[in-house]
User: Fold this.
Amino acid sequence: MKIKCSKSDLLTGVNIVLKAVPSKTTMTILECILIVAENGIIKLIANDMEIGIETRIDGEINENGIIALDAKLFSDIVRKLPEGDISIETGENFTTTIKCMKAKFNLPGKSGEDFVYLPEVKKDESITISQYTLKEVIRQTIFSISDNDSNKLMKGILFEIKDNRLTVVSLDGHRISIRNIELRKNYGSRKLIIPGKSLGEINKILSGEVEKEVNIFYTDKHVLFEFDKTIMVSRLIEGEYFEYNRMFSKNYNTKVIINRKEFIESIERSTLLVKEGDKKPVILGIEDEIMEVRLNSTIGSMNDFINIQKEGASLQIGFNPKFLIEALRVIDDEEIKIYMMNPKEPCFISDDDKKYTYIILPINFNTVR
Amino acid sequence: MKIKCSKSDLLTGVNIVLKAVPSKTTMTILECILIVAENGIIKLIANDMEIGIETRIDGEINENGIIALDAKLFSDIVRKLPEGDISIETGENFTTTIKCMKAKFNLPGKSGEDFVYLPEVKKDESITISQYTLKEVIRQTIFSISDNDSNKLMKGILFEIKDNRLTVVSLDGHRISIRNIELRKNYGSRKLIIPGKSLGEINKILSGEVEKEVNIFYTDKHVLFEFDKTIMVSRLIEGEYFEYNRMFSKNYNTKVIINRKEFIESIERSTLLVKEGDKKPVILGIEDEIMEVRLNSTIGSMNDFINIQKEGASLQIGFNPKFLIEALRVIDDEEIKIYMMNPKEPCFISDDDKKYTYIILPINFNTVR
Assistant:
């Protein structure tokens, strides 16, 4: 193999596929980035068996070929080379020479014979959304997946396609995050449970521009994201997702309208009194026009007051402060609406159009102050 | 005690004294920040027994008093309070109430009876330099102290005052860093060995402005830095510092003039082939007008060429790449001059005015390529 490309193009490509290089693996070949120069196209490939990424880079092929290079070393070298054209040439025993200006590296390479290529994904069914929307919706739901191995479904995020709507859902047994996105046309019904980890990695690669698109292809086993010069394939989590709709209730006894930023800051303040690993609830004392935010722990006590608009009954209700903060942080509205039934039933944070719904279970607390 | 001050003033003060709060200590009182409100002055104090810091903050005293508050908790709270006036009031059993706008914290405090105040330092002898100069000179020498406990002198930085010159020296047995600073007037001769750790902490506090000054007072046991609203006291390391001047030599066989940035980048590239903990030298092959930078390791090999100006003999010489990089990084000159005798004697990197001299011992290497 003998190729030439610009440092910046190569570095961009390397940084993309690096996201699919496993940090730990028993298959040492997967610690490599595979460079494939064939049919006039230079591709970089990496695969950790859960996700695989393939990206094209612009360049000149002087001799077709394939080489596998240690991903960490290769990426470090590309990063540290001067700006300019980089040439990569393989020799005897897959020894590889990387040249840029007056700098030259010689590295051992591997044939790549035992490299695991990306699975073939049939391109029958797909939806198209903007990179911006995909990036946003991942950020707005990924925090409430479970990192617990006991239920693999909770480690995934549901992408439910129905008519012209994409509903994205994550839940961990204590809370549910739901986002609704309007699609540009109607599609057949389909539920995909995509591993949260895969979505976390693609989120790092997406540029997030509104004008750029992502085509999402899916089969029963896999999902394929196609954008810019890159494709990423992830396996899907198999199984029947939770009937999260059952949690919905149209009734409430207390409705609160509150400034989101003030609310976050007040809860954050209260968490200073919670020791790592402790499960102290923050207690909301909802009265007419004012809400008390308070927390008592062995470290000390805090209370704070926030002006609110209230409809319905007064209420004392306790929450895991982390759950409230994480949901509030991914909402963009300046003012939010919270719907509550009683101190034991979940609260709903939702906008009037139901573009988002965050459901959080309360925590019991001792009402003696 | 009852005081009131602005959040920003209090936070600035807290961040300064935090540098003297020990991360580990058997004296729990030292985990506190002491607040002293007396004689119309509010002071914050912290002390880890090696360094002690005291800073004044503007504010209003409604009732004199002293209170010790857990440093981490208190600083976290101040940081998270809204912008506005903060009032701190102590009650029964040293319970302390911190209020800001509608937010209120109640914390347990301590009397501070067993707090260790800063040692008294006589203000007989002192020099004055700008904050900028002190900050720069610490940065330019602190990297070559030793973190090895076997020789405590090597953990300090020498401040040698003589006539109108301050010479700052650090060394670790493999290299020496020397900086010379011209003082505004003549002073009596004095050698201070200041712990590197103390200088590292003061470096984080100094604003580094050219117009602001630092008064440095010293006795046989202590050094006191006075700047802005802050004083910091550090103990000195006792003993006789190394006669670093003996290392100087006026002779050289090879002199190289090289672009500093190109040289750093080339050495950095070579270190990609060195495994953590390995001691592979980078080898400089000095010829007329060109210098080869090369490194061979089990990972691979690299060579690079840099245009230079050379006087004297050609030379092959090996160095610990880290030592070269660290010295080169703290020099500001675009072009630097390196003086060498032979592959076994130290090289000197120095400017014509001897404002700086960096001496580095070479490493033996196998000349077979």
